[in-house]
């Protein structure tokens, strides 16, 4: 019997390159999710949801973003919410990871082509150990989400019936670990009702961080007792993640300390907890414990920067990624010091890595700026709100200053496409659209020009 992956590979469209396969795969999942969400049983009104709203919601869930045009907790029924939860899980782990799960359960062989697609999906440099990594991804996800679901269920059992508490625990564990911002509390409140709750805040932050550092880093940490070493990738991710969280918490704490719409009414402990949560959540999570629209403009713009940087490669999050940002910073430092090589943790980076980081950053900037400019003409809101929304969509964050439910038809299409681009990755989408050139057979003479 042929494995599910091998059967799929026989279709003509899968004879395309791995980047194109990923594009078609995610698009197919979004379409199926949209059709399910359009069913009358998916919402509380008993009528079919508009196609554009269904596509927007399915895209937001599959791309693990969390921007919503309809309130998840009050508009969708349990069936609709379950569809959204499964879309989040499939989108967070990747449809090829889920297909591999079925192949492993059925004890079927993973073909070479399937491994190539998995390599592209997991953003790996080689196919070596890719199936072993997928197994770990599935195990880590199950353990982390299961543990968080139990803890959250116990906590919420004090506030609601046990069955509802368990359901809430499972939904939010899946949503937050996959760095999606969907919640079931209704009225677009997110987690504002638990701003000073230590257990909810800590569990949610751990979920966001674990989902954001990536499965490669998780595997390195699990194996550390045996190997007593971490890869350069893991060192950079852990270091930059810690720096961004600490700096972000400090900036938000200082800027919002006296703001009566956010941290002002809280005690000192609540202020610290809320500052850390609002620093962690822009790492593509989308949940919030204070009113984002109530933040001062300095805080909102700073969160735009955090969202743009995003999570880490091989994770459930988006953005240009922490490693890309680190390479750009390291390149600037090396240039200022007059050094030709970029060295991090006693390792020299290949020139190809630097060019890739520069390409990703510039393409991401171009996308965010272009979409923001178009939205500024189609949406009647201030530019910071539009920039915040666009960056949130690109980085698959899900935070909003209140613009999402008021988006026009064109705005919904643009934000949906931005979420799709952000989840797949700028380079993957570029490779899928264009044709990747081979190495040139000759070199042009070196030229010189003045810079700066």
Please tell me about this protein's structure.
This protein has helices at residues 4-9, 18-38, 51-62, 72-75, 78-93, 95-105, 112-121, 130-156, 162-177, 198-213, 215-227, 232-256, 268-280, 297-309, 322-336, 351-378, 383-394, 409-424, 426-433; strands at 343-344, 347-348. Strand 1 (343-344) and strand 2 form a beta hairpin. It is globular, with a radius of gyration of 22 Å. It has one domain (4-433). Helix content is 62%, strand content 1%. The protein has 452 residues and is mostly helical. InterPro entries: Cat_transpt, TrkH. It is found in: Cell membrane. The chain crosses the membrane at residues 21-41, 83-106, 137-158, 199-224, 236-255, 301-333, 354-375, 409-433. It is a multi-pass membrane protein. One of its GO terms (molecular function) is potassium:chloride symporter activity.
Strand content: under 5%
Overall number of strands: 2
Molecular shape: globular
User: What structural category do the secondary elements indicate?
Assistant: mainly alpha
Topology:
Layout: H1 4-9, H2 18-38, H3 51-62, H4 72-75, H5 78-93, H6 95-105, H7 112-121, H8 130-156, H9 162-177, H10 198-213, H11 215-227, H12 232-256, H13 268-280, H14 297-309, H15 322-336, E1 343-344, E2 347-348, H16 351-378, H17 383-394, H18 409-424, H19 426-433
Subcellular location: Cell membrane
Membrane topology: Multi-pass membrane protein
InterPro entries: Cat_transpt, TrkH
